[in-house]
Amino acid sequence: MTSAPEWATAQQLQDDEALDVVRLDDSRGLGVRTRQAFAAGAVVHRFAGIVSGDICQHSLQIDASRHISGTRYIGYLSHGCDPNCRLDMVGFVLVALRAVAPGEVLTVDYADTEDRLHRQFACCCGAAACRGWIHGRREAPNPEGLAWLAEHDAR
Ligand SMILES: [Zn+2]
Questions:
Q1: What is d(CA 101, CA 59) in angstroms, rounded to the nearest whole number?
Q2: What pLDDT is stored for residue 25 in this prediction?
Q3: From the CA of 31, how far away is ligand 1's center (Å)?
Q4: Is residue 151 part of a domain?
Q5: How many angstroms separate the CA atoms of 83 and 86, rounded?
Q6: Which residues, 6+ apart, have CB-to-CB distance to 127 below 8 Å?
Q7: Following CA atoms 99, 100, 102, 106 in sequence, which dihedral angle do they give, to the nearest 10 degrees?
Q8: Ligand 1 centroid to 27 CA: how many Å?
Q9: Which residues form the SET domain (predicted)?
Q10: How much distance in Å is there from the Cα of 145 to the middle of ligand 1?
Q11: Cα 78 to middle of ligand 1, angstroms
């Protein structure tokens, strides 16, 4: 476990009045919904948490060896292949990629930050460019993913 840098843990984990963690549905689990509109490029949220070398279900990768967990919101962001937000792992901010309306579920591309996912999964984001099977940027689809891709390519 690496020591936590000051800039990641100095902040308190406070409620953000703009965001809610909500249950989306049974297949997608928890997600983050915004109560506010954000313009493209706007900082949606500043986050803090516990920095360590461990990957867990709700951790996010900071750099080659460090991950942040125990965050108030960003660990619950949904994946989207054409997301409305991105994570800045240097500034520790969530940034809107396009205009976001109140009530929208916030999404990021998990493969933007994660070398390896805690769990690979079939995506149902609905984007025209949906990749179908989601895995980390430095790992191949697992056997379940290869089977899934073979089945869906065949259609
Ligand atoms: Zn997708």
A1: 26
A2: 81
A3: 15
A4: no
A5: 7
A6: 80, 81, 82
A7: -170
A8: 14
A9: 17-111
A10: 14
A11: 10
User: For the ranges 53-57, 96-100, 139-143, which has the lowest average pLDDT?
Assistant: 53-57
Amino acid at 7: W
Which CATH number do you get for residue 63?
2.170.270.10
Does any domain span residue 31? yes
Separation of 3 CA from ligand 1 center, angstroms? Answer: 35
The number of folded domains in the chain is 1
Say what the pLDDT of residue 13 is: 64
Contact (Cβ atoms closer than 8 angstroms) between residue 115 and residue 63: no
Residue 65 domain-assigned?
A: yes
Q: How many angstroms does the Cα of residue 35 sit away from the middle of ligand 1? A: 24
- Local confidence band at 57 (pLDDT 50, 70, 90 cut-offs): confident
Quote the mean pLDDT of the chain.
Answer: 90
Range of the domain at 31: 6-118
Determine the distance separating the centroid of ligand 1 and the alpha carbon of 13, expressed in angstroms: 30
Ligand 1: centre distance to CA 2 (Å): 33
Q: For 49-73, what is the mean pLDDT?
A: 93
Q: How far apart are CA 45 and CA 14, in angstroms?
A: 11
Q: Is residue 39 part of a domain?
A: yes
Contact between 111 and 81 under an 8 Å Cβ cutoff? The reply is no
